[in-house]
Amino acid sequence: MGRDAVDLVLEQWARARPDIDAAPMGVLGRLTRVTRIAERELKALFAEFGLERGEFDVLATLRRAGTPGGMTAGTLARSSMVTSGAVTNRLDRLVAKGYVTRDVDPDNRRSVIVDLTPAGRDLIDRAVVAHVENERRILAALDQDQQDGLAALLRTLLLGLGDEAGAPDEL
C-alpha cells in the first residue's frame, strides 16, 4: 500500500517526539485532507451548474423536503444548518437567478415562505444527479463494503460527539 501525506507527518512526529502517540493525528489529519479534496471536487461540479456550495444546499434542502408550497426561511435555515444571515444571502442570489421565490406567509406576516421555481426545480434535479455521480467517483477507491463500513464508523464518531439528528448544529 502506498503512503499518503499524513504518513510523513506521523513519521516526523515519531522522530521529533517519540514520547507522544500521534495516532489521533493520523485519523483527524486524513479526515481533514479528504474533506479538503472532496470540497474542491464538489465546488468544481457546482460551478458547472452556476452554483456555489451554499446555493446548492438551499436548492437541495427545498427539493428533498418536498414541502408543497415551500418552507419558511427559518425552517430552511435550520434544515440547511447555517445561520439565518447566511440563508438570506443565499436566497438573495437564488432569487436574482430565478431559482427560488420568497413571499410573505399569508398566515403569518412575520414569516417568509421560500419555494423553488420551475427553473430551480429543474436545475436541482439535474445537479443532484451529477452530484451523486461525482461523490461516487470521489469514493471509487473504496468498494461498497468499505464505504458502508466507513459510513458506519463516521456515524458512530458523530454520535459520540453529540451530532444527533435534529440537534442544533453549531458549525
TrEMBL record:
Protein name from the UniProt record: MarR family transcriptional regulator
Chain ranges of the HTH marR-type domain: 24-159
Keywords: DNA-binding, Transcription, Transcription regulation
Pfam family, one: MarR
GO molecular function list: DNA binding; DNA-binding transcription factor activity
GO process terms (BP): response to stress
